[in-house]
Amino acid sequence: MSATTTTTSRRRGFRLFALDMNEIGLIAILLVLYFGFGATTNGFLSANNHLSLLRDAASIAIASWAVTLIIIAGEIDVSVGPMVAFTSVCLAFMLKADVNVALAILAALAIGGALGTFAGSLRAYFGVPSFVATLGLWSALRGMSFFTTNALPVTFPDNAFLDILADKIFGIPTSAIVMLVLFAVFSFISQKTAYGRSIFAVGGNANAAELCGINVARIRVLIFTTSGVMAALAGVLLTARLGSGNAGTASGLEFDVIAAVVIGGTALSGGRGSMLGTLLGVFVITLIGNGLVLRGINPFFQEVVRGVIIVAAVLANILVTRYRERRTFGA
Amino acid sequence: MQTARQQDPQTLVAAVRGATKHYPGVLALDDVDFEISRGEVRALLGKNGAGKSTLIRLLTGATVPDRGEVTIDGAALTGSGTQRTVEAARLGVRAVYQELSLIVGMSIAENLFLGRWPSSMGVLSHGEMEHQARETLARLGLTLDPRRRVATLSPAERQLVEIARVMIGEPKLVILDEPTSSLAAAEVELLFKAVRSLAGAGIAVIYVSHRMSEIRQIAEAATVMRDGRVAGTVEVAGADTAEIIRLMLGRSEQNDRLVGEARGGDTVLSVRDLAVPPKLAGVSFDLRRGEVLGFAGLLGSGRTELLRAIGGLDAVRAGTVLLDEKDITRGSYGERVRSGIGMTPESRKEDGIMPLLGVDENTVATDFSKVTVNGVISASRMAQAAGDIVRRIGIKTARIDTPVGTLSGGNQQKVVIGRWVYAGSRILLFDEPTRGVDVEAKSQIYAIIRELAAEGKSIIFVSSEIEELPKVCDRVLVLRDGRFVQEFVAPGIETDALMAACL
């Protein structure tokens, strides 16, 4: 079978599980990394390390699902890290003031959603490039977090519900369960709802989508709202794990998130991408980070290795895409 | 008829001799001869696909003829690929196309010298650049300040800067491709002044246009192309419009018409005194149920602007749009879509298809709710709905979810039309629905349009290919200078009469 039929005209019924060439490549990379580290690194295969791998993956993945939608729509969100920190600080302040925990968490999610909506509205109604709108948020939210906390952790009384979030259910970290549930939800949204398919339509050709009667501006606002809520959720889980609100937390998370999404094969130009790809991308990043730490590689050099691997993975993805387009669209 | 124009070999600037050019499935040029002399302004006319563009591409070196030769200023072009265009440019061929290629954030002067900015020891010399720019502009009789940013210029002024740019170096032959199509009538005089300056400086000008009034003012002779050949070259002064139209159309085939007696029921859409400056100055018409209404007009006559205004995509200055006697003038595009209006854009690739999505999703994108059950898109309903459209309209696709970008142009266009059939729209606005599709797909699209009309849908059909309007339209309105100037009613709409009304 030619590349054309295997990669571009999959039956939709199986689409949630159908594998792209890029995804097969990522699985191969993951296997190499996993068994490579497993064979050479002490403690990598231990049960504890697997739990820690899942927790690390969850901290990136939950924000990545929404950012995948944003990048498919041809936009970008660089505000994730500060958004996580800011909502974490907000939550901690509310808990410190003895606000009911459910209410406080909902309020934190609402704050994230509102800030995301603000960035999305700047993009959709005023034409501010999403990079600039979210870069503004990136700076303002990080600054606001430090300003309100004086860079000190905000502690709050022990809380049973947050302890569950920080702990394990049936031996699996709660955050990892949240990650997997949301993976299913976002896969479903992206493939099976009008909202999800409209995102692909807007990213593939916004003019055509507009002429079809799709409300492009509304889609553009909604994806940033979603992203804000997801970042806030990541903030809630992080606050539970740390037991305090920290202004400096999740530093650089936005780059891990974007890297995971693009490694997963989502095109920065929009219109193409998948949640499964992002899931694999998250695991690639997590495995590399974890393995390098366990091997005791100099932490500064770890950053170098990570940078090289991210660019190499995306380059490979572009070459595959180019090859595929030549086969599909001709010349 | 072929009026032999004696060309003095001493003053000959460019000559094409015996040029033939095949493209897959098309004979674009068939043994064409063409000559032009110093200081001459020559109009070039012909329908879409008559071979004008290929002839221009031969002269600019963008295309190598299969047979025959191209001589510029006495030297035959010999290179191939980009080398040939460089060669032609060095010999003095310059072309200004309809799509402007200025960088709007830079000054006029910087644009004039784009990529070849005057510099000394690696440092740009702005003073020198402005000085040279001012001189160049003055040679065309222009008084624009070369320091102004292009973004601040009007469309006409931008067009003039494009023309000024070709003055850099030593141009011998300047080709202007429909230079007035984006200009308002008042701005045309500025352009004429510049063209006369070019001719006065001994430069030969090829002026592609179909506006007879302009051609009479600016050109001495007109070369008319048809079916890849030069149908004739006539002195403009001695030729009447009817003769030029006859050369353009040749013998017209009238036997493939799909329209008998003009039909149409009650008025569904009523437009009154619609004004969208600068292109539309008060347009009125009624669209009836089950009717195909054609809009004819030259490039730049405001056809697309009119459709966009009816569709609510552009704001209107004055006038009303009534749908079923309800005023929808201020309503958004989305509201109009929901009340049964559908529009297919002129540029299929840029505004029509979502290339990576399948035929099915491209079809149902106009109304996801019809295939959604409890908030979830039903794969089977979507396949069925899209499958109905595919069968009904005759879209050739390997599978229902094949990415639309991989289909042929004709099938892509059918998908773009089909999505409105799926949505159940009653009023369809088709902007150039047959552009860039092959002959077979064209006649299929005509048949689809007639079938939709027979079902009681009302269709506005915009086309720059005048001869296809009589084939499908019950009525044709001719747009010129921002107004409808004439109405033709089937049967018996004659292509040459339509053409004459447009020019």
Automatic annotation (TrEMBL), chain A:
Q: Which Pfam families match?
A: BPD_transp_2
Q: What is the first-listed, main subcellular location in coarse terms?
A: membrane
Top-level lineage group: Bacteria
The keyword DNA repair is assigned to this record? no
Report membrane topology: Multi-pass membrane protein
| CDD domains named in the record | TM_PBP1_transp_AraH_like (cd06579)
Q: Does the keyword Transmembrane helix apply?
A: yes
Of the GO CC terms on this record, one is: plasma membrane
Q: Name one GO molecular function term.
A: transmembrane transporter activity
Localization terms from the record:
Cell membrane
The record's annotation in InterPro entries points to:
ABC_transp_permease (IPR001851)
| Keywords recorded for this protein, A-Z | Cell inner membrane, Cell membrane, Membrane, Sugar transport, Transmembrane, Transmembrane helix, Transport
**TM stretches of this protein:** 16-37, 57-73, 101-119, 131-149, 169-189, 221-242, 248-268, 275-294, 300-320
Q: What is this protein called?
A: Simple sugar transport system permease protein
Species in which this protein is naturally found: Mesorhizobium tianshanense
Automatic annotation (TrEMBL), chain B:
InterPro entries, per database record: AAA+_ATPase (IPR003593), ABC_carbohydrate_import_ATPase (IPR050107), ABC_transporter-like_ATP-bd (IPR003439), ABC_transporter-like_CS (IPR017871), P-loop_NTPase (IPR027417)
SMART domains given for it? AAA
Q: Name one Pfam family in it.
A: ABC_tran
- Domain ABC transporter per the UniProt entry, residue ranges: 14-252, 262-501
- Which regions span the lipid bilayer? none
Q: Does Transport count among this protein's keywords?
A: yes
Provide this UniProt record's keywords sorted from A to Z: ATP-binding, Nucleotide-binding, Repeat, Sugar transport, Transport
Please name the GO terms that the record assigns under molecular function: ATP binding; ATP hydrolysis activity
- PANTHER family documented for this protein: CARBOHYDRATE TRANSPORT ATP-BINDING PROTEIN MG119-RELATED, GALACTOFURANOSE TRANSPORTER ATP-BINDING PROTEIN YTFR
Give the UniProt family note.
Belongs to the ABC transporter superfamily.
What's the protein here called? Simple sugar transport system ATP-binding protein
Q: Which organism is it from?
A: Mesorhizobium tianshanense
